[in-house]
Amino acid sequence: NIPVVDYTWFFDSEYVENKDKILKDIKKVNYPVVVKPATLGSSIGITFVKDEKSIEEAIEEAIKYDVKVIVEKAVENLVEVNASVLGNYNYQTVSPIEEVVREDEILSYKDKYLGNSKKTQSKGMVSTTRIIPARISDEMSKNIVSTSKEVFKVLNLSGVCRIDYLIDKNTDKYYVNEPNTIPGSLSFYLWKEAGVSYSELLDEMISIAIKNYKNKQKKIKSFDSNILEGFNGSKGSKGTK
User: Fold this and answer.
1) Domain residues of the chain, as ranges?
2) What is the pLDDT of residue 211?
3) CB–CB of 69/63 below 8 Å?
4) Does 3.40.190.10 match the CATH number of domain 7-73?
5) Is pLDDT at 121 greater than 90 in this prediction?
6) Is the pLDDT of residue 161 over 70?
7) Are the C-beta atoms of 28 and 19 separated by less than 8 Å?
């Protein structure tokens, strides 16, 4: 029940071997699309593609960075919002939701790390122009909080993460874009809005890690079995005399 945009994916070797089929699959997703490396971050290697004229160039760019490529339907009337989640599989707390201001069709590396200032040194996502709380309805805010907890649990995440969302202003629908399991600045700029200090955030993360470790230590890691009883290494071997 987690809302995501339509998408397709493939490996670089599959693109080389069956390029025509993959291009047809992308066409079914319907242009415009966003092409991106599957496991990279910081908007590196991502291209907004309006039509099939430039799709191959975008794929070649993504392949430079990863063996797996994702092509997803672009949300054109887009608002991007993010929420941070702190916890583990037993409990989750969600931060205030931020609205991220961008200059391009998608949130670019420039938007994330250079911000609007040419004079100040980049401070990662802290440099991004943002509005907190996001300018969304109370109902959507509640839904995003609920979905954030669900994503966190489904993926069995732990500690702190940031979950990014795409909102279509025309339909008023939201989609999960991706979870960032090592968010820049530990998403402290979001927790600060909830009155959580940096030291308190670190203390809670350490506490969660200790609890997780203790829980894992209680689990059985091995068990007695006679599956190899009577096994002779020479039995069934081929080529021996």
Assistant:
1) 7-73, 78-216
2) 96
3) yes
4) no
5) no
6) yes
7) no
Tally Cβ neighbours within 10 Å of residue 92.
Answer: 18
* Residues facing residue 220 across a β-bridge: none
Question: Which CATH class for the 78-216 domain?
Answer: alpha beta
Smallest Cα–Cα separation from 127: which of 189, 201, 85?
189
The pLDDT value recorded for residue 187 is 95
d(CA 27, CA 199): 49
Residues 124 and 185: their CA atoms lie apart, in Å, by 7
Lookup: tokens for 27? 């066409």
- Residue corresponding to tokens 């991502």: 46
Alpha helices, H only, 49-197? 55-63, 109-113, 138-154, 188-191
In terms of Cα–Cα distance, which of 73, 82, 68, 50 is closest to 161? 82
